[in-house]
Design goal:
Elements: E1 2-8, H1 14-24, E2 36-44, E3 47-56, E4 59-67, H2 70-94, E5 104-106, E6 130-132, H3 137-147, E7 151-155, E8 162-167, E9 173-176
Parallel strand pairs: 1-2
Antiparallel strand pairs: 2-3, 3-4, 5-6, 7-8, 8-9
Helix pairs in contact: 1-2, 2-3
Amino acid sequence: MQITTTFRHMETSEALKSYVGEKLERIQKYIDEPVVAQVFLTVEKIRHIAEMTITAKGITIKASEETNDMYAAVDAVLDKIERQLRRYKEKIKEHKPSTEAEERKVTKSIVEAESLGQKTEPVIIKSKTFSIKPMSVEEAVMQMDLLHKDFLVFTDASTEDINVIYRRKDGNYGLIEPQKG
């Protein structure tokens, strides 16, 4: 497990770093290797905030918690992540995994503008690259909920087409599928 710990508005503490490392070991039973964990520990006056992003093969989970003690904040945020991972693993067991489809990578290139003020047309100023695996619509909804996003682009496991699932204003979900023919 690769752990990156960032301290904001506080001094670096090896004891806190090792505490986070020990606590993160308990989530390894839920997800496959390799696991990348980013931990941000922030102190704002009397608020102690712990934020974590866990990225593993095919899944990204984010959580944040604040208390008046940093160790309590770390415990609380790890409890949140563990609950999300447990829920994710239970839902995965309910679905049949697609064994024949291979994981695909989708890459985007970043378009850089010399100056945003000189351009009159919109410019892409941020781009992300995600590793995606073929999944069912139900898995895509679950992944979208875990990431707290309003939409998700995914590859349908049964058709191998790229689809988009999105959250509607009424709380339901919409699915955009490509038309063949």
